[in-house]
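>> Question from a student workshop board

For tomorrow's exercise we were told to take the sequence and the ligand below, predict the bound structure, and bring the output to class. My setup keeps failing. Could a helper post the expected result so I can at least see what it should look like? The ligand is (2S)-2-hydroxybutanedioic acid.
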Amino acid sequence: MRRFLGRRWMSTSTVGWWDNVGPAPKDPLLSITEAFLADNHPEKINLGVGAYRDDEGKPIVLQCVRDAEARIAGTEYLESLSRQGSLKLVMESVKLAYGENSGIVKEGKFAGVQAISGTGACRLFAELQRRFQPDSRIYLPVPTWSNHHNIWRDAQVPQRTFQYYNPASKGIHFAALMDDIKNAPNRSFFLLHPCAHNPTGIDPTDEQWREISYLFKVKNHFPFFDMAYQGFASGDLKKDAQAIHIFLDDGHLIGCAQSFAKTMGLYGQRVGCLSVLCVDKNQATAVKSQLQHIARAMYSNPPVHGALLVSTILGDPGLKSMWVKEVKVMSDRLMKMRNALRVNLENLGSALTWEHITNQVGMFWYSGLNPEQVDRLRNEFHIYMTHDGRISMAGVTTGNVDYLANAIHEVTKSG
Ligand code: LMR
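>> Workshop helper replied:
Here is what the output should look like for this input. Compare the format with yours to find the bug.
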């Protein structure tokens, strides 16, 4: 419709500001949960998103978290944290990653900020990389957590990949990985998973990490560790930080993203830490101020509640040792389910080999099931997982492991 407005005829129809916007691509991980929730089958199983579940298939609240909640009840925490986030959280986090007695931590030669869980820590780092190493790229392993691609894409850092997984052996493709590290231009940035690699569940051995670290030194590459599952690979937090220690021993200045989503079951609280090691305290102060500056424009301050929980747990010897035990319980349950699934498949007389279920570690089993088999599991058995065949072992329970093994056996019978 046209109306006479003042001196001119104007169209009063609504202008379509967003006519050019189509739907975003579905997230390959989060969309599985949506499909699972829409399924009413009584035996449905969600093996999609990597979130810990107990043997009843239920999310848990760790006892150390409940106790920390009770301790902080009534705390005056409605004020925003300073832009660096909780100092205590940062100090306790870096001790977990680099060691209680780490010289770097004691001498303050690191820039550390609280981050919005692991994703936020990666995003802050990617932004720092673009701003201060504008000609650099990030090398991501093939495969990696799908969101790594989104994060560095949004930060406009060009991406390259390096080989990691060998489909033939269902293990690490070490020679190819070393070749790719060698062939990358000197001073490249690499993203590494220090433990419980997502999605493959395959970690280099300590000896392989030493070789990787040595080659990084020769090539002057920058190692950026994304540590979302510390404790889930071996059940031991220190052991799971061994790759980082190997790099520290070789004198690397590394970056590290940490998340407490999985390890403390604080998925919705978004608590994490980003640390970047620096040559001295002055450099650390400058880098930290830039990270705070980046965060200020993105979200101002990180949220308070989760940070209080984590720093209360890590800062109290009693709560911390309770947490260490609870991490072990979670990791043991995942390993127990790996064993049960493997034994079940072998007992069914499957002609295929299933050692990779127990050779791989952490939250995920990279099954090697192909997309057709994944589709059959979903359509015929109501079992949900990512299209690349990644299975979250957290979704496997004593109650559903037989059903799952039977279903996998059925869809793999012909090859
Ligand atoms: C996963 O890989 O499933 C987890 O890291 C959860 C997520 O947010 O993607």
